């Protein structure tokens, strides 16, 4: 895959899963059947699967190659992990091979960044080796948002946080001495700017990549599905603070609408990224070619 050029930087996508996923009524508490009719003209066939009544979504990582560093952003569900959601339980997927297909070996990764610490964003941080969870990327520094880490570190003292992923995909990285926590207004590897966007999780962030006047926003879960560009008031059933998530999303949409910045969320279906445009009242999403 050639990747997308952002000035001197290249961003490539590595897919873990894709296809029909959540039903709209499960994902969005504010969903009504009328929303399907209102949005059908752009939802079908690329973003909604009529036969199953499910949104088309995926789980993907973004690999950012700068002149000096290979940076992996968000690491999916991971393999051989015990999870309560049947479709995410004990996966055995060729995600590492797909990483290899975009020219990256685990040893080459310099930084692993997580937009937040939900179960579907930390999985490949670790892999199982001789019955132990070890860092998948032996030479990488792992950077976690401090707000998320502190929140779930507390919760994890009484019950396994984030469906067990805090124990098998976050704490082993801390124990190996490979993790750093970052706050807001942080710049990573001289190339990536942290954009605070709390609400979906306590410390959720987006990452802005800029080079030679071009930019991309690796947007994590600021929007789960394209629907939230068209209905920015929709927060998801997974959002820790739906009101704050809404405020953060509207701020990001207002900031990037009408700009050439390529928005690259974690869960959008093919072709996976694009630009936000506004007619003054409503937003639309224009997928990149
Ligand atoms: Zn997610």
Give the amount of beta strand, in percent.
Answer: 25-35%
Number of domains: 1
Q: What compounds sit in this structure?
A: zinc ion
What is the annotated CATH architecture?
A: 4-Layer Sandwich
Query: What is the CATH homology-level superfamily?
Result: Ribonuclease Z/Hydroxyacylglutathione hydrolase-like
Distance between the termini: 14 Å
Q: Enumerate how many helices there are, as a single number.
A: 7
Please state the average pLDDT score: 97
Order of helices and strands: EEHHEEEHEEEEHHEEEEEHHEEE
What share of residues is helical? 10-25%
Low-confidence stretches: none
Largest sheet: 8 strands, mixed
CATH topology name, in short, is Metallo-beta-lactamase, Chain A
Tell me briefly what this model is.
Helices cover 22% and strands 30% of the residues. The chain has 289 residues and is an alpha+beta fold.
